[in-house]
Structure formats: C-alpha cells, structure tokens
Amino acid sequence: MKKVFITIVMACACICFTNLNAQVTIGSNSTPDANAVLDLISGSSKGLLLPRLALSATNLATPLSAHVAGMTVYNTATTSGSYAVTPGMYYNDGTKWVRLPLGYTNWFYMPSISFDTSSIISGQSKDLYTLYKNQFTSPLVKSTGAPSSVPYVVPNASDLYYYITDYDTAVFANVSINASGVMSYDVISNSTDCSYINIVFVLK
User: Fold this and answer.
1) What is the DSSP string of 55-106?
2) Exposure winner among 136, 142, 172, 193, fewest CB in 10 A?
3) CA 162, 153, 112: angle at the middle one, nearest 5?
4) What is the chain's mean pLDDT, rounded?
5) 33's torsion region: left (phi>0), alpha (psi -120 to 50) or beta?
6) Domain boundaries, the chain
C-alpha cells in the first residue's frame, strides 16, 4: 500500500511539474509571457543567436535530413545556380528554403531615371545609388496620411551589387559601374523612342 501511495504522489508531482514548466523564461526569473512557450529576456545587452549552417541550395534540405516547415537558420554559404543561396536568415516552408527579406527584397529594378542623350559626348557619369535613395526618401507625391518618405529600409551603397542587364548599344558605350553605384558611360548617338537601359540592384 505504501508503494502504491508513493507512486501516486510521484505521478502527481510529475504532472504538476510538467504543467508549471509548459512555458519557460530564459535569462530571468520572470514569469513567461502568457502567449509564449519560450520567453527570452536578455537585459538589453544580448541577442538570440540562430543555428549557423551552410545550405547548399534552396531546393535541398541539406545539411538537414528533410525539409521541416518553420525551421529557421542563419546560412553561412554562398552558392550559384537556379537555387543559389547567400549568407543570411532562411526559413523552411516544408518544401524549400526561403530567404527572410528583413525589410527589403534581395534584388530590384532601379526606379525610372532619365539620361540626356541630346549631345554626343564621352566621360559621362550618373550616381545610381543616390538617385535611387532620393526617390525613396523624397517622393514627389504621397497619398493622404502616408509617411513623408517611403517606409522602407534603404540599404547603404556598399550593401548592394549593381548590374546593367541590357542597354541600347547604338546609344551608349563604355558603360561601367563602380562599387558605390556610380555609372560611367559615353553617349555615341541620340536616343529614339525605343532606347532603353535596364539597371538592377542586388543585396549582398
């Protein structure tokens, strides 16, 4: 009878302990937030360090054994190809890895800008980064109640790669872009209604 009584007491203790610890606070003796299963309190001096691993491609689970929806990691690798990955935070949707945008997309076309091609002239330049930044921080028109600048985290010039994916070779020549987003070019002919230049920014 005594053994049965002890067994019952221990079982009840385990149940109570499990219920009391269904929610956990780490970093403090404070009661966890009622809506959180895990409440991290750093004292405003520490952060959460995610698992760091090298993904091989967005369509492959490796180095995990399988895709797991909700899995979140910090990728340290850079790969190429159709399913390339770059360093940054990724989550898994159950079938593939998806990079967390962190406030902005991984790549985007530059907003529309104009090039003066009325004169045939060499050694021209245009600060693509500054022109892009100005359009986002000082828009000409906004809707009623909208913030004065576009609510978007504008990366620094050094945080971007700059590409020209295509341009009218009958109008432009000797085209190049430096690491700060300044484009140099020559105008070799006047533009037409079909002249174009496509500029892409990519986050590093």
Assistant:
1) ---TT--TTSSS--TT-EEEE-----STT---SEEEEE-SSSEEE--TTS-S
2) 193
3) 50
4) 85
5) beta
6) 2-40, 49-100, 107-203
Stretch 46-59: mean pLDDT:
91
H or E element at residue 136: helix 128-137
Give residue 37's pLDDT: 85
Q: What does the chain come to in residues? A: 204
pLDDT of residue 141: 92
Predicted local distance difference test score (pLDDT) of residue 83:
84
Could you tell me whether strands 88-92 and 72-75 are parallel, antiparallel, or unpaired per DSSP bridges? antiparallel
* Amino acid present at 10: M
Q: Which residue has the higher pLDDT, 192 or 44?
A: 192
> How far, rounded to the nearest angstrom, does the alpha carbon of residue 7 sit from its chain's CA centroid?
54
Q: Above 60 in pLDDT, residue 68?
A: yes
Q: Which residues contact 98 (CB under 8 A, 6 or more apart)?
A: 58, 90, 91, 92
List the beta strands (DSSP E) in 82-187.
88-92, 97-99, 107-109, 121-127, 160-167, 172-177, 182-187
| Token digits of residue 118 | 């009325």
